[in-house]
Amino acid sequence: MKCVVICGPSGVGKGTLINMLLKDKGCGRLGFSVSHTTRKPRPAGEVDGVHYNFITHEVMEKLLKKSKFLEHARVHGNIYGTSFEAVEKVICDGKICILDIDVQGVRACRRSKLEAAYVFIAPPSIAELERRLTGRGTESEEQVTKRLRNAIGELQDSHQPGLFDFVIVNDDLQKAFRQVQTSSSSLEPSPSSSSLLS
Question: Which residue segments constitute the domains of the chain, with CATH numbers given?
Answer without folding.
Answer: 3-184 (3.40.50.300)
